[in-house]
Amino acid sequence: MCRNIRPLNNFAPPATDDEVRAAAIQYVRKIGGSSKPSQVNQEAFERAVEAITAASRDFIDSLVTTAPPKNREEEAAKARARSQARYASSASA
Prior knowledge:
By secondary structure, the chain is mainly alpha-helical. It is 61% helix and 4% strand. The chain is flat and about 45 Å long. The protein has three helices and two strands; from the N terminus they run E-H-H-E-H.
């Protein structure tokens, strides 16, 4: 999975439309093989982003869980700690 796409389910507050769209853009960039489409492909890129955004929002809104919602700040702190550990171990190698 692309590291830039973060899990969006079961957070308090829920994922925003902007977060869902950003994940869709990352996904389309990844499968399309470029970070910026050419002018000739711009319309296809935007259609894909819109379709994936809508499908992702529908999917997230349909998920059911009994787990308590995750705290965004706590999850971000955990991600930073994992990143520091990963880069610290690669710097010493």
